[in-house]
Specification:
The chain has 106 residues and is an all-alpha fold. The protein is 75% helix and 0% strand. The model has no long low-confidence stretch (mean pLDDT 91). The chain has one domain. Helix 3 runs antiparallel to helix 4.
């Protein structure tokens, strides 16, 4: 496994966690879909609303398209999938620190 593979997987991890867990995009998509279908309860759009699943599938596809998928890379992908929750917590901590420091309100 090359260092570029690690960089690619780390960048993908950050993007997926921000888009799926923190942006609210998937919540909005699910809300509109529920309204359109007339569904009352919660709906799940796995793997699109789960950063763990989304990162795993996206990383496998990206590395496969780059021709870099092997056992070492797949192991790194699985470890990265496990790190989606701590990554979200870290990003939330950073955002809270900026909010406290600069008085930003969202």
């Amino acid at each position: 496994m090359r260092w570029e593979d690690v960089e690619t997987l780390a960048e993908l991890l950050a993007v997926v966690v921000i888009l799926v867990d923190m942006s609210g995009f998937m919540d909005e998509v699910k809300a509109r879909l529920k309204r359109w279908l007339g569904v009352k309860g919660d709906i799940s759009l796995k793997p699109f609303d789960c950063s763990f699943c989304m990162y795993h599938h996206t990383a496998v596809i990206v590395m496969l398209c780059l021709g870099r998928l092997n056992l070492a890379v797949y192991t790194a992908i699985c470890i990265g999938a496990l790190l989606t929750i701590p990554t979200r917590a870290l990003f939330s901590l950073i955002l809270d620190a900026f909010n406290a420091l600069f008085g930003w309100r969202w």
